[in-house]
Amino acid sequence: MFSHIQTKIQKKIQYSLSVLAIASLSLAGLVHAQDTLTIAANPVPHAEILEFVKPQLAKQGVVLKIKVFTDYIQPAVQVNEKHLDGNYYLTQPYLNEFKKSHKNDLQVPLVKVHVEPFAGYSTKYKKLSDLPNGATIAIPNDPANSGRALILLAKQGVLKLKDINNISATKKDIIENPKNLKFKELEAATLPRILGQVDLALINTNYAIEAKLNPLKDSLFIEDANSPYANLLVARDDNKNSPAFKKLAAALNSPEVRKFIQERYKGAVVPAF
């Protein structure tokens, strides 16, 4: 009798251990099935949009980690060095310029997500025509955005460039400057902070929004909807085809993200898909 009871107990223990082993394997498989992506982004709107898609990706087995930067250079460098999986903030013109100075650049654009129309702001003047002779204009100091600023000014008629379509234009390409405008080139992120110290500043929309500037209401002039400066989701050549990146790319080009961008930013940021 005792032997029979002992055998039953042993069978129950074996069964319980088997169930635990199967559960452990299933859990291990679930954890293994999850992919982690660490993506660099500027605070607004990039990180906000990534936060919006984060729960959706979690349901698909992708853990999205968002690393926020306030500059344009370091996150691009860290993607090349494989400290980060990718980034979401670069434009194609900026990426082209970055590649010129970083010979081993491995970054590959996957999808366009949105456009942030570039704009000119002033706390001293209400109209661009009020800008006085010798006015000081602050523009970004990175090659892609400085050219973008000069092109936008040329389109407003305040100066003339050798080639208005040259996105790499510099101050040396100005052939007419009737108001003798002076240019101060500064890091893009600092431009909202020095707005009151200059007559006019050309500011990227992500930094303008952070500074509580409304590009549609507060700017003197703004790029039109045909801007080629769409913000991209960027991977490296070695991970561009990963299932996790494909899921992130699809999420960023989804109808839900389109609606989120339109409702949250009300025209200050425009979907590019």
Automatic annotation (TrEMBL):
Organism expressing this protein natively: Undibacterium flavidum
Signal peptide: 1-33
Compartmental location: Membrane
InterPro entries assigned to the protein according to its UniProt record, in alphabetical order: Lipoprotein_NlpA (IPR004872)
Presence of keyword Secreted: no
A Pfam family that the UniProt record links to this protein: Lipoprotein_9
Protein family per UniProt: Belongs to the nlpA lipoprotein family.
Annotated CDD domains: PBP2_lipoprotein_Tp32 (cd13597)
Protein name in the entry: Lipoprotein
UniProt entry keywords in alphabetical sequence: Lipoprotein, Membrane, Palmitate, Signal
Main subcellular location: membrane
Record's keyword annotation contains Lipoprotein: yes
Membrane topology value: Lipid-anchor
